[in-house]
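Help wanted!
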Amino acid sequence: MGEDSLQGYRGRLKVALEAIGAGIGDQIKVESGGAVYEGSLMPRLESDDEHHVVLKLRNGYNLGVNFDASTQIERVGEAEKPEFKPPPLPTMKEGLPRVSIVSTGGTIASRVDYTTGGVHAAISSRDLLSIVPELSDFAAVDADILYSVFSEDIDSRHWTGMARMVEEKVDEGVEGVVITHGTDTLGYSAAALSFALRNLPIPVILVGSQRSSDRPSSDAATNLVGVVTAAATAPFAEVVLGMHETTSDTSIVFHRGTKVRKCHTSARYAFQSVNAGPLARVVEGRVEMLEDDYRRRNEGPLEVMDGFEEKTALVKFHPGFQPKLVDWFVDDGYRGLILEGTGLGHVSTGLYDVIERAVEEGLYVGMTSQCIWGRIDMDVYTTGRELQHLGVEPLGDILPETAYVKLMWALANSEDLEGAKALMRENIAGEYSDRTLYTGRFG
Amino acid sequence: MDYGKLGLKVGLEIHQELATEHKLFCQCPPELFKEEPEYTFLRRLRPSQSELGEIDPAALFEFMKGRTMLYEANRATSCLVEMDEEPPGPMNPEALDVCLTFALMADSKPVDEVHVMRKIVVDGSNTTGFQRTCVVSLGGSVESEGKTYGIQHVGLEEDAARKVGDEGEVSRYRIDRLGIPLMEVATDPDIYSPEEAERVALAVGRLLRATGKVRRGLGSIRQDVNISITDGALIEIKGVQELGLVSKVVEYEVQRQVALLGLTEELAGRGVGEGDLNGDIVDVSVLFKGTKSRILKNALKNGGKVLAVRLSGFAGIVGSELCPGRRLGTEMADHARFHGGVKGIFHTDELPAYDISEGEVQALKERMGAEALDAVVIVADDEGKSRRALEAVVARAKQALHGVPRETRSANPDGTTHFTRPRPGAARMYPETDVVCITVTSERLEALKMALPEMPEEKLERIKADYGLNEKLARQIVNSIHTEFFEELAKEGMGDTTLLAVTLTETLKSLERDGVPVGSLDEPVMKGVFTLVNEGRTAKESVPELLAWLSSNPERSADEALGSLGLGMMTGEVLRELVEARVSEKSEMVEQMGMKAFGPLMGLVMGEVRGRARAEDVQALLREALQARLKR
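Answered by r_m:
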């Protein structure tokens, strides 16, 4: 029997399968609607109905057979347990730079169990090397599993954990750290580490994949090879995010952790630098710097400021926005709000009263723009000037998400509100750009 | 050949593109484009590791060599789904309905719940590295000449991208075809002769077309043929695009297997064993320093090597013909190309030739220690490639000791086949979790049953009645791939239905027999030809000539064919002048014979204007001219 004996089956069908002692992978025979089907029992998705048995036929195809009161199911054979024979490891070369791969969830490499259709994550160093053997050509990699969480379940505690893990690895003397991460909140984590890791001596590179690693076309391995190359050999010592530059598999591009945003739901090139150019790229195994002004590899020492204030929110203004929503944050003891305003940095005049109250109650209130591209300017229109007068802090061209993460960090790492305000105004990790450059089409 | 005695068994997998409004998993139209691509992108496919720790070695090898795919696309025919940049949408219900309709017509039992699978394919023809496929129904049968043939299953899958070229390590594919719904009908292996195979393919094709929702034109239906004989091997032959080729493919494959078994016997008689094929690969470049052979010279000039291997006991065997134009040496060359990426091989059974001299061959044999019964194979290319190529040659020689190797082959245009890859183990399939499974409800099936299309036999009767065709012609048109096209033309009043039917069946067939590439004729072009006849701009006698010209000039129109061949109708005045000129030239005869000169003169004029004038018009004009002259 398989590990999860009847995954996805419910109700009377589950009872019937239990009654004959059938488990996933077992050979069963089903008589239904005047036809007889034989095959191995397959798991069902949780969202599927509870009236069909899924069989894998001998030719490899799955199909669902209707289950009702007249259906007969018989168990005719036991599952063949696949015996995993790990392929031989590539021979390790001496003297290669050490790179640490830290996994937080998502799968950068996986194996498919073609008998049950299960996809299993491969995250040990050995697994990684057997699936992406070319890594051993240019780096001595070790792999650690820090978390196993979906990207959408990552929060500031995980950022703290990641920062401490990097500290450990820096102490071990690795040449670079790679963090694998689901893509949905990858940009937030990149920003968080950019602020938390002060005086960084080596590159810290976050990476994900937009196509699952079970498929031959996955971008996971290509991205991994590219980021390990950079972690091992790139001259920069910054927190960056490395993913596909375009839809082609030819280049991996590195975005600064504070300037990057997921701009597409599904494409390989979803991550884009906003209001800035990317820092570097890897093409044909070589790192190419795209900016001159960057932090070089150095002796450190690394300083970790890994606190994040959770009572912080990112609030998107929109037509019809109810002022009492802001009141709710104030009443609930929040310490700061980042507003995602319209255009150059505005919200409705109907919000003046609640914003004034928030500031009086000691909350930090910062303004960013929901336009994504461009910088805010709260001196152009009356509303902007009045909002500043009420105490709203303009945040230049910082991305709303980065501003939110930075505020969490600034509030946790300063004595008082004034200290936090000062940190928010300071360009800590390249989150502000001095000049807004022409980009043509965005993205 | 006595196919019964040989134990021939044939099964067919027929793939038919469906003419639905959209592709299978997105809203793109199922259409191809001819223009230059609007954009291209480069990808690589990494073979996935199975739970058993296995990776397909051939696929991994290709990947490590840096095999890259360059995909071509335009916005009209593909979106992010085909680019593998967006998850697939729900399965196109129209396509599923066509398959279910076919299932009902073929008495195949629809499954209760359809599950889409991912079938691993890493040759680059699918951007994802897998093909989305599902089983729609099981069992059923088709009939041909009173015999019933079993159907194993009816499936629905996405068509693959089409290969448009290979440049070194880069394969070029166009993704317009990717995602077009493709119905698969797999028959039982209960076909026992080449002719039977063709008849069954015809019967399945007829039933597919009866659904009224199939794409037409070259490449819209493709047959895979699985062939085995007793003591031989089950060989899968992919991509037979023409129905007329199925029986030839079977015939040649049986010949090939019988011949390979004969070679195995011969080798056993000579006492050759695996131990005799030690596979020592020797650098013999020095022997060819002064060679006249361009291929060898170029390889050496480019820093390559000439490597050789001795195949003990293989003299006369390597050059032995298996089926027309294919020798064991040809098979070895296929393997050398596949594994080594070289252009080809030379072997001593065919040398001296290709500017390799008798002296060079003798020196080669001496250097390799080859005796009378030994063969030597050489390859000239980059050293690594040549070595891999010769290793593949030795491996293929070892297979020859054991009979017919199991492999996947592809059809050549003449019906012979070539090796494409080792036969994969069990198909690597796992669920496509991005597409929800579909329950086939009894309501859906009832609704489809109420609206079942005409069966082929009914269609035959109706076509006889509606278009006034005789039994033979009606049967031919129903059996042809042009049934629907014929009906469309007839309904549009495109003239004489007998002309249409004869042209679409007998004329095309006889042109094909004469070696005219009629496969390149598409429907709009043929319609153009019928339009010319219908509008009186050419005579029906010029149809074969026009079609033949258009077959060789597929980008041109019927009007251009007419102009180029000078088959336009002679206008009244020109024709009158010509007739009068002939009458006056033959004035002596006219005077002697009177109106009796009409027959010979008619023959004379028609010989000159056939295809450019209607006989009735010539008749009238000639009668007039004769009467006028005789009156004088």
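OP: Thanks! One thing I noticed: Residues 11-77 of chain A form a domain with the SH3 type barrels. fold (CATH 2.30.30.520).
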